[in-house]
Design brief:
By secondary structure, the chain is α/β, with parallel strands linked by helices. The chain has 3 domains: 279 residues, Rossmann fold (3-Layer(aba) Sandwich); 128 residues, Isoleucyl-tRNA Synthetase, Domain 1 (Orthogonal Bundle); 48 residues, no CATH class. Helices cover 41% and strands 15% of the residues. The protein contains 15 helices and 16 strands. The strands form 5 sheets. The protein has a 5-stranded parallel beta sheet, with helices on both faces. The protein has a 5-stranded antiparallel beta sheet with strand order 6-7-8-10-9. A hairpin with a 4-residue loop joins strand 15 and strand 16. The chain is elongated.
Amino acid sequence: MIRLHNTLTRRLDDFTPLSSDKVTLYTCGPTVYDDLHVGNWAAYVYWDTLVRTLQIDGYTVDRVMNITDVGHLVSDADEGEDKLEKGARRDGKTAWEIAEYYTQHFLDGMKALNLIPPTHIAKATDYISQQISLLRALKQRGCTYQTSDGIYFDTSTFPRYADFAQLDLSAQKAGARVDANSEKRQPWDFALWKFTEKGKVRDMEWETPADLLDTPPEDNKPVMGFPGWHLECSAIAMSLLGKTIDIHTGGIDHIPVHHTNEIAQSEAATGQRFANFWLHCNHLKINGGKISKSLGNGYTLDDLKQHGFSAMDLRMFILQGHYSNEGNFSFENLQAAHNRLQHWRDVACLRHQVHDRLHSDTENNDLRHDFSPSAAIGAVKEALNDNLETPRALAIVDKALTELDKKPPQKIYRAGLIEFLEFVDAALGLELLDSTPDIDDECKRLLVERRRARDNKNWVNSDELRDELLNEYGVVVKDTAHDTLWAYADEKPE
C-alpha cells in the first residue's frame, strides 16, 4: 500500500486510485520562456520517482504534463507582461519561436535526467478551444464577470475557495496576496481570459467568442485575447484525464494561488472534486539562499556540465532529499552526490567480472543467502511506498552495494547483483546498467597482459599497461587480495 502526504487532507493517506489498475496523474509543467534551473528540475525528479513507484506497484500511469507557452503573466495578480512575450523581447524572437526553442530545451533536459516521458505533453496553445469551452461553462453557471482588461472568475460563487490553502480571506487586503485591481469584485478573483491591450498586437492572441462577452465592443471589432495561466491546467487535465483525477502534483508555491484557482474553476464547472490527492514539493535553495538570476545562481544543466557534473549527478543529489523538505544546493553537496553515484557504478561494473560458476547445491544456496536481492528490493519498495522516502531508499542501496563491494569476486552472486541493479534503475532512474557496459576485447586483452606481467613481477610493464588502460580507455585497474578488478574512471575534472 502506498501512503502519500495529501495537501487536501494535510495528512498521510493510503492511496487508492479511482481504477484498480490505472492512475491518472497531472503535473504542472514549465513556462517555456527560459532554461530551467536546478530548483525547477528538482520537482520533475520527485514526480518521476512517484511515477516509477506507482509502476513498480503494478499500476499503469496515465500522466499529463502541460507546457505553458502562453498566458503566464509575470505577476500572480494577473498584471504585467506575458512571460513568453517578455522572453521574446529579451531574445529578439517571436513568442512562438521562444516557446518552441525552450520547449525543446526542456525535453532535452528530461531525457538527460532520464525522466519517464508523460503519456501526454500538452501545450497550452494546442488547447485553446478546450479552455474556451471551460470558460463558457463557467459563464453559464454565473461564475464570471467582465472588466476592461479581461474575464474574471468570481470567487464569491465558490464558497470553498479558501479551504484548500487554508486562506484567511477576511484578514487579507488587496495587495497582500495579489496587487490591487479596482475592477475586481474580490482582490483574489483571477483572470480566466485577458484582453489584448487596445492598440497592441500580440504574437499569441485569439478572438474572444462573442457569447463570452458581457458587453460587446462599441466598434463591433473582434476582441482579441489569450487565456489566463490557471485556466490551461484545468482544461487540459479534464479533457485528457476526466473530471476527477487521482493525483495532481506541483510546488508548494502553487498552493495559495495557482492550485487554489484550479480547484475553484474546475469544481465550479463540473460540480465534482477535481483531484483526490495533491502532492507538493518544497523549495530548493542555493547555499542556503534563494535561487535568483540576479544573484547568478540559477544554475542550469549546461552550467553544471561546465563545472564537470552530469545530469545524473544532479538526479542523485535531488533524490538524497525528501520532496517535502526544503533542500539546499551547493557544489560541495553535488560533489558528494557525484561520489556516491561513482561508487554505485563501480559496484555495477562487478557484474562483468564475476560469474555464476557451477557450485554444489550447498554453495549456491550460501551465495544466494549471502546477498538476497529480494530482501533489498523489498526494503527499497517499502521506503518508496512510505511517502516516497528516497533518502531511506538510497541508504538501503548504499548498504547493499557497500557489502557487495567488500566481498571477494567469487563470493558475489552475479544473477542477484544484476536483479538488484535492474530494480534500482527502475525505481531511481540512475542508469547504473547503461552507464557501465562491459569493456571491449582490447581492454580485456590488456588486462590479461597486465596479469601476466604481475605474475612475472614485471612491475614496470604492469604499470605501463595500467596507465594505458586509464589514459586510452578510461578504465581504472584495482588490485585486490583476491583478484584484479576494473571500473570506469571518474570523468569529473577536479
